[in-house]
Design brief:
Layout (H helix, E strand, L loop, with lengths): L19 E7 L2 E6 L6 E3 L1 E6 L8 H7 L3 E5 H6 L1 H10 L1 H5 L4 E5 L2 H7 L6 H10 L4 E3 L11 H22 L3 E3 L8 H12 L6 E3 L3 H5 L3 H14 L6 E3 L8 H6 L4 E4 L1 H7 L2 E4 L2 E4 L18 H5 L3 H28 L3 H9 L3 H12 L3 H5 L9 E2 L8 H9 L20 E6 L5 H4 L1 H10 L3 E7 L2 E4 L11 E2 L14 H4 L8 E5 L3 H7 L4 H6 L8 E3 L5 H9 L10 H21 L3 H6 L4 E5 L5 E6 L2 E6 L6 E3 L1 H10 L8 E4 L4 H5 L4 E2 L3 E5 L7 E5 L5 E7 L3 H6 L4 E8 L6
Parallel strand pairs: 4-5, 4-11, 5-6, 7-8, 9-10, 10-11, 14-18, 15-16, 25-28
Antiparallel strand pairs: 1-2, 2-3, 12-13, 15-19, 16-17, 19-20, 21-22, 22-23, 23-24, 25-27, 26-30, 28-29, 29-30
Helix pairs in contact: 6-7, 7-8, 8-10, 10-16, 12-14, 14-15, 15-16, 20-25
């Protein structure tokens, strides 16, 4: 069937029907493509609910607005004699005059609202199959919030028991396998696990409409987390009945791929208008708080004066356009790594949503955090809660660090002999703002281990160019590390051009390991008024520094350039550990065998080991790119004690990977180490032989579960000897 206004449906390739492919992801948030023989549906998206008896907005216009799928009720079609006859003879797509994907519900929600339905649980699936829907829905048992745990358990078990017969009745039709359990999170997890074991195409999370009607958003988020944590990851997740734009960001961030709602039409009939931050009543407006194409050129008074049906149609069109725009905003936020900024922003629009967001910050799923790429290109937009975002949590967990074994003169120093010196007050680039001071201090006192205070973490000075820490865009007061409860006078203490110094007489590795989002520093060594804290601009700065650190080294013992080279060398050692997974014992042992090819700006470009190019440093994020020779070296040096991420690939794919082709889902046998989304990994065969290396596109669980899409973007294939 052709589309409208030049848009056409795009069927999938033969053999891909029912497969879900992730094109890009950030934590659990994902931009996907659901392959069906009617149309390849881009997600996340909303399926507008269409009542075939009451078409406030025609399905044809919905397609034109940009909605590539819709949902209608098979029970309503089955009950209507004329609708039923047409659907069986012409098919549901012709009935609705719609070229996109059509999903149908089974009538369970009508059963919840109105009582029993008159169609059997197998018959309703057969009917959906016979009218040619793309995705049918089995008849589950709706779990109401007011049901007892015993009743909810019976509902979950009954739904599971109906699954096999429903799947058999569906035959080749894709089938929804709903997750039930009410507000009992243990039952939600149990339901998700049991439904995942069957061959459903999509997993809707059901029984949530009563919660949303009462703005019980914390319960809603708890249910999503409990369900998503246990669901198999390679299938789309549908939040049944959710369609208000204010909920899209947090739900998309938690991995919801599909939404549906009739709110666009129901709200319009009551003169209510959807906006990204809530619902407004037409009667209370003098101007439009949120514009849409439907409202262009019209005043609030003009719309109020329209006949009721015409007004309802216009407001429904507005509601759909706002919905489409907010979903596009969410998808773009996933692309540009700002989905959690959008979650935080929207949370301030509603008190109950704010409470749900705060609960989520305190209960962030580990798998979600682990799948958030820790090091990426581009600037990092600051927000008050940035340190609670999964990407930053993961970056702090990933940033393991060990002190260099020697100082810039080559002398061994025990950890107990060293001092942590924290520099604060300025954003990057720190090699320019702090570099001369650090070189001078460390030359005079080699026991100094310099750190940089950032609003999201402490980092060792030598990692001063590493994303996200180096690319954080935050207002200047946040770089001073002052408690926000202090007076304004304290916050501006020391002008913007002043560098603050804090000395902590403890093992620097212990200091680094203890700090979590810099709270440790605020609680254990307050910067303001501490006798070990002072400013470079103070008149007695050098005297106070010497009183804390002791006598300077003689000027004949090393130079500032020696210090700079020392930090440069061990920065590369740190990064080799971070980006390869090799342990510090291995990496520190080859430090003296490393040499560098420098850029015109005196930055490290290429890293050579005994003259062989093994890594290149990226100036865009401070990370390392591995070469083929580097992959061979890492493979040779790794041991069971190391956490080198390795993906074990099927022998059928081996020749293609050696030739530089990407690793596709479906050709992965397992993983070793800890593959991270967006980070390097080695590709090995079942015998452990090195086949290639690349960038993982997901974590271990997703690597193995998915059957469509790119699992690892290969950066180099390793040819066999003699090839």
């Amino acid at each position: 069937m052709s589309g409208h206004l030049g848009r056409v449906a795009n069927p999938c390739r033969e053999g891909d029907h029912g497969k879900f492919e992730v094109k890009s992801s950030d934590g659990w948030a994902r931009l996907g493509l659901f392959h069906t023989s009617t149309h390849m549906l881009a997600t996340p998206t909303l399926l507008p609910v269409v009542n075939p008896n009451i078409l406030t907005i025609s399905p044809k216009e919905m397609w034109d607005i940009g909605f590539e799928a819709l949902i209608t009720n098979s029970y309503i079609i089955w009950k209507g004699e004329e609708l039923k006859a047409r659907a069986l003879s012409e098919g549901v797509h012709e009935l609705l005059d719609y070229p996109g994907l059509v999903m149908t519900d089974s009538g369970v929600f009508q059963q919840y609202v109105y009582g029993d339905v008159e169609i059997g649980e197998v018959e309703v699936v057969e009917f959906q199959r016979d009218i040619g829907v793309d995705i049918a829905t089995m008849m589950d048992v709706f779990g109401r919030p007011d049901m007892t745990n015993e009743e909810l358990s019976e509902a979950v078990n009954e739904t599971v028991s109906r699954g096999p017969a429903a799947l058999e009745a569906a035959k080749g039709t894709l089938l929804n396998g709903p997750i039930q359990g009410g507000t009992n999170l243990e039952l939600r997890t149990q339901s998700a696990m049991m439904m995942s074991e069957m061959n459903f195409a999509v997993h809707p999370i059901g029984g949530i409409v009563p919660l949303m009607e009462n703005q019980r958003y914390t319960d809603l988020i708890k249910i999503i987390v409990a369900s998503k944590s246990a669901l198999t990851p390679e299938r789309p997740v549908h939040l049944f009945g959710c369609g208000h734009p204010i909920l899209f960001p947090i739900c998309v961030a938690l991995g919801i791929d599909l939404f549906d709602s009739a709110a666009y039409a129901l709200f319009a009939k009551d003169d209510r208008m959807l906006t990204p931050t809530g619902t407004v009543k037409l009667a209370e407006l003098s101007e439009w708080p949120h514009v849409s194409p439907a409202l262009w050129g019209k005043t609030t008074e003009e719309v109020r004066s329209l006949p009721k049906e015409e007004r309802a149609e216009l407001l429904a069109r507005h509601n759909l356009q706002v919905t489409a725009a907010e979903l596009a905003r969410c998808r773009e936020a996933v692309r540009n790594d700002t989905i959690w900024n959008l979650v935080e922003e929207r949370s301030h629009a509603n008190a109950e949503l704010r409470a749900a967001t705060l609960w989520l910050y305190d209960n962030m799923p580990d798998n979600l955090v682990h799948n958030s790429p820790p090091c990426r290109q581009g600037g990092v937009k600051f927000s008050e809660e940035l340190a609670l975002h999964p990407r930053i949590i993961n970056a702090n967990r990933w940033l393991k660090w060990k002190m260099p074994p020697v100082d810039h003169l080559g002398n061994a120093l025990e950890p107990s002999d060293r001092l942590a010196v924290i520099l604060r007050g300025r954003p990057g680039p720190w090699r320019e703002s702090y570099g001369p001071l650090v070189s001078s201090m460390v030359r005079d006192w080699p026991q100094i281990i310099p750190f940089i205070y950032t609003p999201i973490s402490l980092i060792p000075y030598q990692l001063e160019d590493l994303n996200p820490f180096a690319h954080l865009m935050a207002p200047r007061p946040y770089w001073k590390g002052l408690d926000k409860t202090k007076s304004k006078g304290d916050i501006v203490l020391g002008l913007d051009e002043t560098i603050g110094i804090t000395i902590i007489d403890e093992d620097p590795e212990w200091i680094f390991s203890c700090q979590q989002n810099t709270n440790f520093l605020e609680e254990n060594s307050p910067f303001s008024g501490d006798p070990h804290s002072f400013y470079v601009g103070d008149d007695d700065f050098f005297e106070r520094l010497e009183s804390q650190l002791g006598e300077k080294r003689p000027k004949s013992e090393g130079t500032k350039q020696d210090v700079k080279r020392h930090h440069q060398l061990y920065a590369i050692c740190d990064k080799i550990t971070l980006f390869s997974g090799l342990g510090y014992d291995v990496v520190h042992s080859i430090a003296n065998s490393l040499s560098f090819v420098m850029s015109r700006t005196k930055r490290v470009n290429n890293i050579l080991l005994d003259g062989v190019h093994i890594f290149s440093q990226r100036l865009t994020d401070g990370g390392l790119s591995i070469t083929n020779e580097g992959a061979i070296w890492v493979h040779q040096m790794m041991s069971e004690e190391d956490d080198v991420p390795c993906v074990i690939i099927d022998s059928d794919a081996e020749p293609f990977i050696r030739d530089g082709r990407n690793v596709m889902h479906g050709f992965i046998l397992g993983c070793k180490g800890t593959p991270r989304n967006g980070m390097p990994c080695l590709l090995i065969n079942e015998a452990g032989g090195l086949v290639g290396h690349g960038i993982a596109q997901c974590g271990t669980r997703e690597m193995i579960a998915f059957r469509k899409g790119i699992a690892v973007k290969v950066r180099g294939g390793i040819n066999l000897a003699g090839d």
